[in-house]
Each structure stands twice: as C-alpha cells, then as structure tokens.
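Problem 12. The chain below contains 186 residues. Write out its predicted structure in token notation.
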Amino acid sequence: MGAIVRSGQQTGGTPGEAVGEEEQNQYLTFLLGGEMFAIPILNIKEIIEYGSLTTVPMMPEFIRGVINLRGSVVPVVELSVRFGREASPVTKRTCIVIIEIESEGEKQDVGVMVDSVSEVLEIHRADVEQAPSFGARIRSDFIRGMGKIAGKFVIILNVNRVLSIDEMAMLGQAGGAKQEAAMLPG
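Solution.
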C-alpha cells in the first residue's frame, strides 16, 4: 500500500495555516461487505497492509487483535463485526486504516480493518444529509451523515462513536464476564 495520509495534512498554504473549508469536506472511502463508507480525512493517520495481528484473550469479538505500529500498541477493530455483521474474509485488498480518535480529551490511535480502500472524495456539505433513524443496518449514532455521490449514498461514519474506547471497554468486560461464567463448574 503506497497511500499514506497524515492527520492534519494540509493541501497548499503555509504550515500552521487554518485548514480550509475544502479540506473539511474530504473523506476516505472504503468498502465493507459490498457497501461504501467514508471517514473524514482529518481522522486518518495512515493506511497499512493487513499483517499479522496478536490476538488478545477475553476481548469483544470485534477486536481482531493488536499491532505494533512503530513501537506503539494499536488495537485493530473489525468494522463488519462491530456493526453486528459476519466477519469479513481476509483478502489481498484487506487493509488497516489507522484512525486518530479522541477519548476524554486524549488522542488515541485505533486500527480499523476494511475490505478495501477506494479513494479520497470531496463531498460538499450540501450533499450530506442527516442519517436516517431507520433502515440503516448499523446503529444510527454511528452515522455522521449520508453523502450523495453520483446518485448513490455513502455512509459517513462518526468515528468517535464507532470507536468509543469507553464503550468498547465495557463490551470487553461484559464479554470477559460471560466467558468466565461459562468456565465455572455448574
């Protein structure tokens, strides 16, 4: 994968200048189970090839494992499972998108496993509609909006909700308690 995008990267201007309106409308699009999703480009740190993951016991099903990214431990979330779907098969196009999220005022890197990365698109604010309260096959609080591109909809994700560290930790504790209960003699 040659595509690497840095968080806060600017197009033109001098370093330190405020990010322009156009930059805020750029999204990385990717496929997941045949559907197209988008994440604001400013949340993306980089895109890497899917590699060997270290599994961590007693984690929720959607935590695929962790990777070592330049000395940092980065959890990898399988988005399809996080959305309540079947696990995606790993192919040569499968990759991990490293996303910077904010949790309780601190920034943290989280990897998300996607079927394939498509492209960076500009979606004008006029072409973004509210998320539907019904019909979407993922939780509505995970959706930031629905972008219209060439007559089709792209689901724009709210990464801070999808990758909420607090919620994932609670699910991990609940899953761990279930596993421990299942191992107790009864």
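Discussion. Residues 94 and 115 are 5 Å apart (CA to CA). Students who got a different answer should revisit the alignment rule from Section 12.3.
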